[in-house]
User: Fold this.
Amino acid sequence: MFEKILFATTGSPECDSAARVAFDMARQYGSQLTLFHVLGIPGKGDSNVVIDIRSGEEVDVDAEYIEGVAEELRTTYAKQLEALPGVTIEVGVGVPSREVLRMARTKDVDMIVLCGPAEGQQAGFYKRGVVGDTLRKVAKAARCPVLTVSRPSASFWGGFSNIVFATDFSKASESAFQFAKTVVQAVDGELHLFHCVDLSRFQSPIALTQDGIEAKLAEARRRLHHEYATQLGDFKRFTSEVWEGTPYVEIVKFARERQADLIVLAHHARDVDPDERPFGSTLEQVIVRASCPVVSVNRPDKLPQAAEA
Amino acid sequence: MPEGIFCNKKPINTEAELKALLSDTRGTKYYEEMLSLEVDREKLWATIQKTCKSRTQTWLDVCARCGLCADSCFLYLVNDCKPEQVPSYKIQSTLGEMVRRKGDVDNAFMRHAMEVAWSQCTCCNRCAMYCPHGIDMGVMMGYTRGLLYSQGFVPWELKIGAGMHRVYRAQMDVTTEDWVETCEWMAEEQQDDWPGLEIPVDKEDADIMYTCNAREPKHYPEDLAEAAILFHIAGENWTVPSEGWEQTSLSMFAGDWEACKLQVENVYAAIDRLKPKRVIGTECGHAHRATVIEGPYWAGRPDGQPPAPYIHYVQWVAEALRTGKLKIDPAKRIKQTVTYQDSCNYIRNWGLAETAREILTYLVEPGYLVEMTPNKEHNYCCGGGGGFNGIGKFRPQRNKALLTKRDQILATGAKLVIAPCHNCWDAIRDLEEEYHIHIDWSFLKPLLLKMVIIPDHLKPQDEEGDEE
Amino acid sequence: MYAFLTGPMLWLSFAICILGCAWRVYKYVKGLNWQLDRVAYGKYPDLAFKGAMKSIFHWLIPFASCSWRAKPVFAAAFFLLHIGLVIVPLFLYAHIMIVAERFGVSWPAMPDGLADILTILSILAGVFILLRRFALSEVRIITTRQDIMIMAISLAPLVTGFVAAHQSGDGNGWLLAHIITGEIWLIAVPFTKLSHAVLFFCSRAQIGIDFGVKRGGQRGSGIVW
Ligand code: HEM
Ligand code: HEM
Ligand code: SF4
Ligand code: SF4
Ligand code: SF4
Assistant:
């Protein structure tokens, strides 16, 4: 289902849960796995010095240093690598989001796995919050699905089975739905279609009356059914639900309630200017809070092919 | 050991040499070898006789030693008015001595001269405006760097930088294939948001040929995407050349005149090949200096002009705003205290002070722009110009130099600094990292993209299915 | 002695001064190189002329350049010194008389009283500038023996001329000293930094053209000195 997986990692303990998911998935689906570490932000004008992502220190990148980093990765993931031969290790220099996207493009991968920011560590060591930034940019621009794991509890034990698909009815959500559908059919799991009516977006008092909200909810239910459920054909193991509130909060609550082991959503089109949002985009918020892996899918280009898998 | 393996008088001409020098981390061995690098006195004197003509000679001779230039130099001021930082002293104790001694100088002298030429002058040319005789230390330091480079006394990073231009015709190892691939990539990445957006490569007879800084494709390709989006919105007929797209010149900072010529001729060849109506360079100061201001002379063009009209990005932006090709949503104008970093290279040395101000009238809500003092043609260098930013050996001096700009910015109370110059942008980023004054800094492109009104026909269809 | 000094020697020193200065200007202009200097000197005559004139005049007029305004005291001293060195001797009655005697050409002179005052101010300004050299560390570090020498050469005729004009009794000794120092002054001009009397115009014109045709003169307001 996922022929090539790119796992972007710093090799630090925060990436352990993501590593587990990446390795497990690669084993389960027979994927070609690439471990990729971007070791630094190019810094300091035209010099060769970069800022190490993990330490925030300046380091000189030369062949020796790169080999050292690769070796470190090999040690960190020694056990997994032994169990899964044929994994490639790559080390890059640059702005992490850019380099991950570049590598994904060069290798034409079907899935990118990222380590999510642990809660409280969102701002990161670096002023700009490299982790959140990477996540946001990769999720927005990647042509393939991007899977993020942030919670240690959110590990992946032998496959997904209980999948939440959260939609804002955008075009990108359609691709996300196709992904969710393929995966759920392949694993023969259960699918939960979900939409949250975003109350914070209604300015007019009329819309906020009980009747107004009811109307929205009804309309959303209709659309869930009409736009998605009808596409499921024979597949009957799905539920569909519409709540109201702040999307990321409700998505996380819903996923908990359904004991989801995977959340699928699009990079919310509404969050056009994440820089302006103090708490980051819906996607980011979901990732930070969810206790299971989160997949963001925006484009139809690299959806898994159910048939041949 | 007269010539070292790494540190010698030979420029870098092959990829192998480049890799070898790069492998000498931080130039440790390079600088060690420099301690015993011999000065070829005959050659030095011969070069001086050939190239030190009446302008430079007169500047050296006629200097009244009046010290008026002292206060004009930010490096003098920021270094607690150390007398050794007086511009006149800096040049007289280096180039002046070299000429007076007819090239008979030793290794220690040359190493000291190197330190002065690259860590005590950013070639910002401010002093030229304050000297009663019009003596321009920036120009003379540039010349001195050339002499030093020809003798092998050049900071490690800049020897590499000049080598990059010689090998790749770019300041970084970005090949033609890398570049073209990056263009495709960026066009593809924007397709969903901007249907019909293209980054046309090698289109002949376009209205605009766009050139940039290799750091953009290498590390910040979204800058290229942003340029493309803005041209797209403005409805420009534009192109990028597959070869000759790199506008910068670290060889200029290094004093490698031969490489400067190679580099700029590469760009001019693209102009000749594609015959665009005009060329627009990215938001970079020294790139403009290298390719538009000095370049024609390196390439031997007596009219001092590139083969086609060649403008800086701020000129295009001002024009696009003026003619309404780009329209700003007044509601989205900047409503926080903001200031503008004048880049020496195209403000003092190319007269765009008012052009930049014109842009600001569109982007900034009236009352929110607070100018630095001094500004416009009289601005101080950001602190990292002339290659200073990139030289590890002189980092402490550079960090000290940043204090000028830090204090200027603090005095404005601005939270955002608009800096349409790569070098200035870097310097301001570094000063934030070094001194934490809680400011933001930005090129024009991202700001424009936040504010520009997108014509309806360019909006993607069915962006959102959700109710409004 | 007196006859020799006011006769052949006077001619000789004038000739040396004038021809020497002309030679310096000639050499300067000839040594300009558009490619090495990276200035298209001849291609934009209008811009070049405008740039050169702006550049010279902003500096020739008191407080017309930013730099003069930034250093008002020094600027004042500078102009007082140069008025004494350039204007006063040109319009001095005694000097005009000598020229009139030899050539028969004459021009209006300034009142002696004014000349006295300007001479004294000029000497004081010269002394001030000299002291400033030692007082300010940024000037001290670039001061050489030559600078003190040329200040001495410049001021000597002023001092001697002033004393000669004002001393009561037999003034021959001072007058002689004045003429000798005056001739040294004249001869020194082309050979020392005093050549700036002409090279100032060359160098300022050059930077004016540089900014005028290349660095911004074609756009905006050009450089503001
Ligand atoms: C080289 C030929 C020169 C000759 C023959 C000459 C001659 C004279 C004479 C005859 C006087 C009048 C003295 C008196 O009234 O007893 C005089 C005064 C003076 N000269 Fe000269 N001079 C010469 C050069 C110069 C030069 C080069 C300077 C200027 C830098 C100069 C500055 C003065 C001044 C300032 C006075 C006194 C003015 C005053 O206070 O009234 N002279 N000179
Ligand atoms: C029209 C002609 C002249 C012009 C435009 C001119 C201009 C200048 C300038 C621009 C300076 C540098 C200012 C400074 O000190 O910062 C200077 C300095 C000086 N000039 Fe002239 N000058 C002229 C003629 C002369 C003459 C004829 C003499 C005397 C022989 C003279 C003696 C000096 C001296 C002694 C200084 C040095 C001041 C110092 O020590 O700082 N100048 N002049
Ligand atoms: S201001 Fe000009 S003349 Fe005066 S010391 Fe500086 S360089 Fe020399
Ligand atoms: S060019 Fe700039 S940095 Fe260099 S001496 Fe002049 S003022 Fe100082
Ligand atoms: S980096 Fe900018 S401010 Fe600094 S010298 Fe260059 S152009 Fe000037």
